[in-house]
Amino acid sequence: MKLLFIRHGDPDYTIDSLTEKGWKEAEFLSEKIAALDVRDFYVSPLGRAKDTASCTLKKTGRTATECKWLREFDVKIKRPDMNGEKIIPWDWLPQDWTKIENFYSFDRWWDNDILREGKMKEEYDWVTQNFDKVLEEHGYVREGHYYRAEKANEDTLVFFCHFGVSCVLISYLLSISPLVMLQNFCAAPSSVSTIVTEERRKGIASFRMSSFGDISHLYAHQEPPAFAARFCETYDNKEQRHD
């Protein structure tokens, strides 16, 4: 089975939709996805994800199942350097979050006062449990760190969603800490991340990432990727965001 996690196009957060650039990205993306044999589409309830999906769904004459748990990962934490102000958990300064060894552990990343106060584990469990229900419907049942292939298949499932929740779901499939993915990975708007099953022994399947943040559909149209989700490459670059 193949899972495609698609981040929405360049966002206009003020109206929960897309910028003019974002709509172009969504159209270029639709050419790529419409050419695939997709079993089912799933979409976040938020406007920017639904608008991104709309171009593909219109082109293919398909509909998508709207899933509340695919919304952007709904957690706010008190970042140590922000005097109590709450912020998303993937914009921490590296000199702060890297000091917490638990953040590198799949089994202990949530064992931290800041994350406990933000109820991040509860949100993580809610998202991943609902995700597992979808996988089970398609024949794969979680068994520790792998999946039992009860009805092995080569279906393709597409999830139109967001950066944060994609990192959470991918980290869950790969059994790595979501903090590592949230802090160290970057997926540009409209990018596609692909996870595939490997069933080397009958009935035992694991998921493996074949690509992360693919934007080849933009390069094919000479469209530069949006800078959203990134921070300045050098501190002296005042045109790129620092926080």
Concise summary:
With 243 residues, this protein is of the alpha/beta class. The protein has helices at residues 20-34, 47-60, 94-97, 113-117, 120-137, 163-174, 178-184, 216-219, and strands at residues 2-7, 11-12, 17-18, 40-43, 65-66, 77-78, 86-87, 140-143, 146-149, 156-161, 192-201, 204-214. Helix content is 33%, strand content 23%.
Layout: helices, strands, pairs:
Blueprint: E1 2-7, E2 11-12, E3 17-18, H1 20-34, E4 40-43, H2 47-60, E5 65-66, E6 77-78, E7 86-87, H3 94-97, H4 113-117, H5 120-137, E8 140-143, E9 146-149, E10 156-161, H6 163-174, H7 178-184, E11 192-201, E12 204-214, H8 216-219
Parallel strand pairs: 1-10, 4-5, 4-10
Antiparallel strand pairs: 1-11, 2-3, 6-7, 8-9, 9-12, 11-12
Helix pairs in contact: 1-2, 5-6, 6-7
- Given the helix and strand composition, which structural class is it? alpha/beta
Outline type? globular
Taking the alpha carbons of the first and last residues, their distance comes to 38 Å
The biggest beta sheet is recorded as: 8 strands, mixed
* Largest beta sheet: strand ordering: 5-4-10-1-11-12-9-8
Number of helices: 8
Q: Which stretches of 5+ consecutive residues score pLDDT under 50?
A: none
**Roughly how many Å is the radius of gyration?**
18 Å
Mean pLDDT: 96
Q: Helix-strand pattern, N to C?
A: EEEHEHEEEHHHEEEHHEEH
Strand content: 15-25%
Total strands: the figure is 12
